[in-house]
Amino acid sequence: MKKTVLAFSRITPAMVEQLQGEFEVIVPDPKHGDVAQQFDEALPRAHGLIGAGRPLGREQLAAATQLQVVSSVSVGYDNYAVDYFNERGIMLTNTPDVLTESTADLGFSLIMSSARRIAELDAWTKAGQWKASIPPALFGSDVHGKTLGIVGMGNIGAAIARRGHLGFNMPILYSGNSRKADLEAELDARFRSLPELLAEADFVCLVVPLSEKTKHLIGAEQLRQMKPSAFLINISRGPVVDEAALIEALRAGTIRGAGLDVYEKEPLADSPLFQLPNAVTLPHIGSATTQTREAMANRAIQNLTSALRGERPQDLVNPQVYKA
Ligand code: DGY
Predict the structure, then answer these.
(1) What is this structure's pTM?
(2) Active site annotation includes 284
(3) What does pLDDT average to over the chain?
(4) Nearest-atom index, ligand 1, CA of 99
(5) Best of 77, 99, 235, 303 to mutate for ligand 1, by most ligand atoms within 8 A of CB?
(6) Domain 100-281 CATH (choose: 3.40.1380.20, 3.40.50.720, 3.40.50.1970, 3.40.50.10860)
(7) Which one from 237, 256, 293, 299 is the annotated catalytic residue?
């Protein structure tokens, strides 16, 4: 008998068709009523779940009694209760590597947009305000040659650092749990404690996974340690930054600006950030290119398929639950 897969997001109709070759596939569809209800109704039959952006833990998965694997179409897995998965023996997989370069592109776009005020001046031009050369009050800040501080030098952090160092001649600082001798050699990157990095960098780029340790890693005190001319870029997870403290710092001019792709609560609605011209606000699009989302979904399908065939998936987050 075919195993059942519940596909809840980021999977195209062609991918559903591919999965149907091997599994019974259920895709909640708004045309057939409430999607959340369809998801809950299908859970008891599901051997595998595939998708992203849905918190899954004890409460949400209690009815999923046959569940063997959750294949997330994301690299981050902070919205899954991994301890509970381990307790239940449910495999969790993610999609690293395939999104590294696209997410780094987006991180660098936020550096450029916030420093050169791209979004703000685009809105200004379209509002018909361009009557003469722009006044100095609207000038931006240089990026080339400025110091780039990477908080969390994993693959994505390194890809951003490469863009900055090789393309924009930026000195690189980084902080994190471990020294990276290879990147120190390749990019002349210098290791700093977080307070040192905050005090020296012109751009502070957050690329750490969300955990108990990194929640509110950047709060009022850390923002005060930054230069008033510096920019904070967050492409990691919203709760890494105390958003209320950031809003206060942007209003008060404690820092010059922020480029944000992630927020404490998503989707972001009615936020004071919308009133702040020195905040660039994007709707969590780090990996959102056609090519990368397709690569992520394909990788997630491979992980799901391996797990349901009893093979060890390539990107198993919790290897301790795998039984050959
Ligand atoms: C990820 O993959 O974790 C990105 O944030 C996109 O969801």
Answers:
(1) 0.95
(2) yes
(3) 97
(4) 2
(5) 99
(6) 3.40.50.720
(7) 237
pLDDT digits (tens, 9 = 90+) for 259-270: 999 999 999 999
Cα(202)–Cα(150) distance, integer angstroms: 11
Which amino acid is present at 247?
Answer: I
Q: Is 262 in the pocket of ligand 1 (CB under 6 A)?
A: no
* pLDDT tens, residue by residue, 109-139: 999 999 999 999 999 999 999 999 999 999 9
289: which 2 tokens? 């290119």
CA distance 153 to 176: 7
Spatial strand order of the sheet with 69-72 comes to: 24-26, 4-7, 48-51, 69-72, 91-93
Q: Using CA atoms, how far apart are residues 19 and 9, in angstroms rounded to an integer?
A: 14
75 Cβ inside 6 Å of ligand 1: yes
**3-class secondary structure, 175:** strand
Distance (Å, rounded) from C-alpha 182 to C-alpha 120? Answer: 38
